[in-house]
C-alpha cells in the first residue's frame, strides 16, 4: 500500500483561517496529512505558481484554494497543475462571498476548479478526502463509516421526533 497523499490547503489571506480551520478539523478526523499556506494570487503569484507546479512531486494529491473577494487563487493554482483543485469561496465584506464563488466556478475550458459552497470548509475537506479515497481503500472505508454514522444520526432524530409528535 502506498503512502497517503497530502492535501495542500492554501488561503489567500490569514483572514480566511476561521473557514480553513473547519477544513483542517475534518482532515484531522480522517488522519489525512496536510500543509497549510498563505499565498496571494495577486501579491505572491510566483509562490502560487511554484507550489502548484511542485505539488505532485511534494506528495500532494489535492489542492484546496480558499479565498474571498477577488478569489483568483484556486484558478491560478489550477493553471499550474494537473492535480485536482478545490475552490473554497470565503465571505467577503461586500458581496457575501458571491464574488468569490463566481470567480471559482467560472473557469475556462481545460482549467477546472471543483468548487464547494461559500464558507464550506467542511465540504472542501470531504471532497478532498473522497478524491484521495479513490486510490486508498482504508480511507474509503473510513468515509463509508462516516456516511453510515450520518445516516444513523438522521434516523435517530426522526425516531425521536416521531415519538414526540405521536405521543
What do you see in this structure?
With 167 residues, the chain is of the alpha/beta class. It has two domains: 6-135, Rossmann fold (3-Layer(aba) Sandwich); 136-167. The protein is built from six helices and five strands, in the order βαβαβαβαβαα. It has helices at residues 17-29, 45-54, 73-79, 98-105, 121-133, 137-166, and strands at 6-11, 34-38, 60-68, 85-90, 114-115. Strands 2-1-3-4-5 form a five-stranded parallel β-sheet, with helices on both faces. The longest helix has 30 residues, at 137-166. It is globular, with a radius of gyration of 18 Å. The termini are far apart. The mean pLDDT is 95.
Name of the level-1 CATH class of the largest domain: Alpha Beta
| SSE topology string | EHEHEHEHEHH
- How many β-strands, per DSSP? 5
Going across the biggest sheet, name each strand in turn: 2-1-3-4-5
Largest sheet: 5 strands, parallel
Instruction: Give the overall pLDDT as a whole number.
Output: 95
Instruction: Count helical runs.
Output: 6
> What's the CATH architecture name of the largest domain?
3-Layer(aba) Sandwich
Residue windows where pLDDT falls under 50 for at least 5 positions: none
Count of structural domains = 2
Ends apart, CA distance between termini: 53 Å
Give the helix/strand class: alpha/beta
Helix content: 40-55%
Amino acid at each position: 500500500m502506498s503512502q497517503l497523499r497530502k492535501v495542500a490547503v492554501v488561503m489567500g489571506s490569514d483572514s480566511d483561517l476561521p473557514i480553513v480551520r473547519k477544513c483542517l478539523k475534518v482532515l484531522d478526523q480522517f488522519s489525512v496529512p496536510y500543509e497549510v499556506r498563505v499565498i496571494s494570487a495577486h501579491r505572491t503569484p510566483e509562490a502560487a505558481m511554484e507550489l502548484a507546479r511542485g505539488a505532485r512531486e511534494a506528495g500532494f494529491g489535492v489542492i484546496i484554494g480558499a479565498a474571498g473577494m477577488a478569489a483568483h487563487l484556486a484558478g491560478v493554482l489550477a493553471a499550474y497543475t494537473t492535480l485536482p483543485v478545490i475552490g473554497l469561496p470565503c465571505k467577503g465584506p461586500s458581496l457575501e462571498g458571491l464574488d468569490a464563488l463566481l470567480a471559482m466556478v467560472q473557469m475556462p475550458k481545460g482549467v477546472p476548479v471543483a468548487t464547494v459552497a461559500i464558507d464550506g470548509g467542511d465540504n472542501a475537506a470531504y471532497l478532498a478526502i473522497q478524491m484521495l479515497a479513490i486510490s486508498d481503500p482504508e480511507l474509503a472505508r473510513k468515509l463509508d463509516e462516516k456516511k453510515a454514522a450520518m445516516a444513523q444520526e438522521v434516523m435517530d432524530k426522526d425516531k425521536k421526533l416521531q415519538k414526540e409528535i405521536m405521543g
